[in-house]
Every structure is written in structure tokens, then in C-alpha cells.
């Protein structure tokens, strides 16, 4: 499992397990937002299950920083993936949260609400222009002003499609769908031409689909969800139409990434998200599919694909704000992000880095082919998943979507129920 997929998997399981009551009162004692002083002092830096594969890299970064700032010393702590959120919660409650912490947006949200995450719009505004706008915005919290972590590494996935199946349906294999309207039209045609034997999709819509369709997911205050508006209902209604026409695989209600991938591999489904690892798998297990594989961007009606992002947060209670901010920036600056991206399949969040030949120049390999496609789409990508959208909320939405597709509820009723359940869960977060 890649570093990014590992992190995302844990983030999904751990989402918002940090109760605000465990994070302190949120007052401003013990720290300073002024990062303009001398860079000095002993600080701690915590990563998330990275030592095993990247020990030399991080020790090198720390050595560089300490050489640049001789009056500093960085102690590196690496926590295992399992229980990472619980560890952060315990440290927050006990006043032992490290100075600089590797976080995902869902993990930084409760810390920011509790006053434990430094607002970088105040403490590090001069660095904002160094990062992609969408990446910088990903650690903002609805209902709060400020940005609470430096964006670190990004990821996204291109969409694979089967050119042969498109051609058989009378569709242009070199013009895959780009918007949801394109997708719905092509999918219905493919189902009709194949007598329901070939579905275009194998997955039900998720919160990211609603975002890419242009649905307003939450109110501006971050106090309630809003994806049951007219546009949200329209999206789910179209998916119901696909489901009835067998343009959406009948097993989509219970699909996993693995089962969806298998459907695509056996050419029962025409489109599926994936990675360079999948291409290699196609080459070995399904050479006919590999020969006809197309790579395109994620479907979006907003012009922006979805990105996943990791961040580096500064503890607002640190006794060495200048050193902590300087180190968090050092780890996430263009030079070090580029270096890290060449060691693992992730992408830099720094402006201009995606124009590097590493992300633009073909060399004939599948890995590069997918990397270039993903990098191109990331330049103006956004993180559609609300930072307050927990794993329980994802389950509630999925269950209601299933009821709508099966005809047990209308799309409007299903989304109303999903929003109601998510709002209740949101209030329970504090």
C-alpha cells in the first residue's frame, strides 16, 4: 500500500475521533502566533507511519534544517498508523502534543476548534503564495477564519476507460466523458447497445461526486449540510436512472474498490478510477484490456477534480513558534516536496512544482503515463470532502443512496434523511 493510500485509509477510519473536550479549553496561554523571532530551540516533529520506509529521507531533512539553523534541535517521533488519531487526542488532552504534527484535514479540525492548531494565515501568511490555492484552502475549517496546517503531499487518481467498449457502443473512444451530463448520456447509450451487459460505472455516488457535480455540500458557517438541494437531488435522480438501465453495475450498492476493479478487469464495466499499479496489473492479467486502455481526468462538472491532501500543523502552544513554523515550512517547501515525490507516488502541493519535467515528460512507462495525467489535473484541484464529514456520515449517505437506487425512497427523501443524520452527527462532534 502506498504511503498516501495508507494514510487515507487510516484517516477514513479515524475521522473526527478527537473529542473537543479532550483538547483543552482553546485559550491562548502557552504559545505565540508571532513567528518572526529568532529560529531557535528544541522542537518535536511527529509523522504518521513514515519511519519504516523513509527514515533516511527525514533524517536528512532534519540534518539540513539544523545546519541552516544551528540553534535548533529537532526530535523526530513517528507514530504507527493504527491508533494515530487516539494518540493525538491523548496528547492534546495531556498537554503533550508535539510542536509540529503530520495531520489530515479531518484530524486538524477538532484541534483547530480547540485552539491547539496555529492559524497560519496570521503566523505564516508570507508563505501562502508558495502553495497551490486549493491545497492551502484544504486545511480551513467551516465556521472559522484561518488556515491550520501547511499543505504537504497531494494525491488524486485519473479515470481509466475501456476504448473497445466505447467503440462497440458507437461512442468515440478518443472522446471520453468529461462532465456528469456527458457521463450519463454515454452510460445510457452503452447499456442500451449492450442490452444491459456492460455498465459504465461500478460505484454509487459519494460526497466527492456531489462536490464535483457542483452541489453546495455545507452552509458557509459549517453548522449544517446542504447536499439535499435541487442539484443534489438531480444527481441522485440521474444515478437512479443509470441503475434502472443497468448502466450502473447492479452490485454497486455493495461494491468495494477491489470488486469494482475486478469488474473493470473482466470488461464488465467501462470506467474505473485507478493508479499506475493497476495498469501493471492489467498488462499481466488482462492484456486485451491493457491494449485498449484509455486514461482521462475524473468526471467533474465544476472544472475542478478532487484532491486528497496531507498537512503539517504547528501546535499553537509551542514554546518555540518561530522554529516550529520554520520547520513546518521547511518540510513542505518546494525543494523538499519535490524530493519526497520522487521517492513515493505522491504529488507536491507547492506552486509550480507540477510543471517539473518529472510530471510532464513522457518516457514510455505506465507509471509516468499515470503520473502525468494525475499531475495535470491537480493544478486546480480542490478537496471536496468536508473536513467535518466523518466516516459515520459517509455510511449514512451511502445507506440512503442505496435506498433511493432500489426505489425504497425518492432521491429527495433519501438525501433529506442523509442530511438529517449527518447534521445530528455534526452536533454530537461538539
Distance between the first and last residues' Cα: 34 Å
Report strand order across the widest sheet.
2-1-3-8-4
Helix-strand category: alpha/beta
Which architecture of the largest domain would the CATH scheme give at its second level?
3-Layer(aba) Sandwich
Number of strands: 8
Our estimate of the beta-strand percent is 5-15%
- How many whole angstroms does the radius of gyration measure? 22 Å
Shape: globular
Fraction of helical residues: 40-55%
Q: Could you say how many structural domains there are in total? A: 2
Annotated CATH homologous superfamily of the largest domain:
Periplasmic binding protein-like II
Which whole number gives the mean pLDDT? 90
What is the third-level CATH name, the topology of the largest domain? D-Maltodextrin-Binding Protein, domain 2
* Highest-level CATH class of the largest domain: Alpha Beta
Number of helices: 18
Order of helices and strands: HEHEHEHHHEEHHHHHEHHEEHHHHH
What can be said about the biggest beta sheet?
A: 5 strands, mixed
Pfam family, one: SBP_bac_1
Organism: Streptomyces cylindrosporus
InterPro entries: Bact_solute-bd_prot1, SBP
Keywords: Cell membrane, Lipoprotein, Membrane, Palmitate, Signal
Please sum up the structure shown.
With 430 residues, this protein is of the alpha/beta class.
Description:
Helix 2 (51-68) links the parallel strand 1 (41-48) and strand 2 (72-79). The chain has helices at residues 3-14, 51-68, 84-94, 105-113, 120-123, 133-137, 163-168, 180-193, 207-213, 230-244, 257-265, 276-285, 287-291, 321-332, 334-341, 366-378, 391-405, 411-428; strands spanning 41-48, 72-79, 100-103, 150-155, 159-162, 271-273, 293-296, 308-314. It has two domains: 3-156 and 307-378, Periplasmic binding protein-like II (D-Maltodextrin-Binding Protein, domain 2, 3-Layer(aba) Sandwich); 159-304 and 386-428, 3-Layer(aba) Sandwich (D-Maltodextrin-Binding Protein, domain 2), CATH 3.40.190. It is 44% helix and 10% strand.
